[in-house]
Amino acid sequence: MTTMNPWTIQRVVKNGRYLRAYVPDHPKANKHGYVLHHRIVAENKLGRMLTEEEVVHHLDNDGRNNNPDNLAVIATQSDHFVIHNSHKSRAFTNLVCGHCSKEFKREVRQVKWKKQFKYYCSRHCMGLAYLEKSNHRPNSLTVKTEVL
Length: 148
Fold this sequence. Notes:
Strand order of the largest sheet: 1-2-3
Shape: rod-shaped
Number of strands: 7
Distance between the termini: 103 Å
Radius of gyration: 30 Å
Helix content: 10-25%
Oligomer: single chain
């Protein structure tokens, strides 16, 4: 594998969450001559061009901290996604079924914290609760009224 000469960064500008480096002779430069600064730093550190699939990850999650020790090259975008989402575990809460009183778990994001709202451990219990509730209501067809 041959090593390349490091890219010479002529200027760095802020652009949203990231910095961009002015390297007009870089093959991936936009029409104004700018490339993402962290990609140039990673390429200079590795001594080679990054592939289209490779993603540069900021270890401290600060997109503007382009210190070479803070950057890691990840093989694919999906691997990068795993790194960013591995710490996000789903939070659960304990609930009691509104029909059979059995304890069960639901994700917190699925729970509406209203006192009048009932949760059921299964569709079966929800259906039975609905049937019981509808049987307690007087049906307009079965109620006899007397006309005076």
